[in-house]
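Annotators were shown the component list below and the corresponding predicted structure, then asked to write short factual statements about the assembly.
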Amino acid sequence: MCVVRNRAICSALDVNELGALNAIGRERKLAPGESLFWEGEDSVLVANVIDGVLKLSTSTEDGREQIVGVVYPSDFIGRPFGGASGHGVTALTEAKVCVFSRRDFDKFASEHPALEHKLLDRTLGELDRTRRWMLWLGRKSAPEKIAAFLLEMVDRLGEVAGCEARSEESAVRQLALPFSRQQIADILGLTIETVSRQFTRLRNEGIVDLPSRREVTIVDYDRLQAEAG
Amino acid sequence: MCVVRNRAICSALDVNELGALNAIGRERKLAPGESLFWEGEDSVLVANVIDGVLKLSTSTEDGREQIVGVVYPSDFIGRPFGGASGHGVTALTEAKVCVFSRRDFDKFASEHPALEHKLLDRTLGELDRTRRWMLWLGRKSAPEKIAAFLLEMVDRLGEVAGCEARSEESAVRQLALPFSRQQIADILGLTIETVSRQFTRLRNEGIVDLPSRREVTIVDYDRLQAEAG
DNA sequence: CGGCAATTTGACTATCCTCAACAGGGGTGG
DNA sequence: CCACCCCTGTTGAGGATAGTCAAATTGCCG
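Structure shown to annotators:
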């Protein structure tokens, strides 16, 4: 029984339909670093993320990588109805996904317009988010990229320390990043050295604290926001 | 009678349905530089491109612009079923679009699953193209960006000069760019000066010819492809 | 022919990348 | 339990790429 059922595209279905969908899907666990599929392979699978964080990435022939998307629980992965999707999918954390053969999913979707509607809505949203990200890649400086990245992470993963309301902007926020420094670099189109230097600068200026390599505490939210431009 | 009818999402409809869709849409002409809607406004409209080329763009507060998408005839514009889409839409050439109020379109789409299916397929494709573009923005040098841009233009707009087959790679190709130098810069995340310098370099090296500011002739396709990395 | 905007060119600069060395810290085996 | 090792991340020095500012040129349109 799928825990993201009421948030994922499956929420468009009634109990009977859910049963039918479950019949064609199977759960799969992924270890960090394990790939669900690879760049260039024509995707025979689609999937729903149940738990964990995964990256979508492409690279140039000479090995430079760019992460083009990050997916979280309830997000949809893959390219139904079409050919190859041009990017690989790899787990960043322990992850659980619900996998369907594309052929089966295509058929099921065609018979359930409500599911397609939900998927369309999500895809349109994802397209918007991706386009907003392009502005950062193309037009922002390294300090701005880092600041914007941290703010995005607060939004997606942040927990408010203590009892302050979520909208209290000056509240201290703790983040457990699901990314290595290299992966942050690959998201922002920077090198690992530049990412590292920006992190230490933010720490030295008292804007963030870095309890460990995978943790960030936002100390001065306002100044961080100012840095993001 | 819409000339892109058999390529646009409308191709999912039969004659009666087309009539109903036409009843809620109206044609609109745009002059170059004219906007269909603006960044941040919650889009009350959606549209289909009938003729011309339009850009989707966002900018930072201090005026740096990034073009996040370019749409051609038969492409769909706008964000159905949701809120604001975060980018403006502006005509680059004379353009003709078929406009719908979002409310009307949402209702119509919900009643016509085949239309939604077509739209979903297109949106998934657009998402893929956008993600591929991100690799260029994040990881490529100026010479690589320019070369890749020209190759993409050949693909989208190119006409083969003379009688060579389209697959003949060494054929001379003529392009009439729908973009100014500044717009190319805004697409590639560069400055206008850098774009200009790369164009002259390519001309000096005999890889392209520049008959006028809006025209490019590909002289040495292979070397251009090599430049693209 | 003149005026204006777009583009090109030039000189200089800043940012970010590259290459290289060093540090930290988590896990393993002695 | 501790020492060592390896991987990831940090720091430093130097250099290349693309950005900035400024001036000259082009070509389009009246």
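Statements collected:
1. Residues 9-135 of chain B form a domain with the Jelly Rolls fold (CATH 2.60.120.10).
2. Chain B has two domains: 9-135, 141-227.
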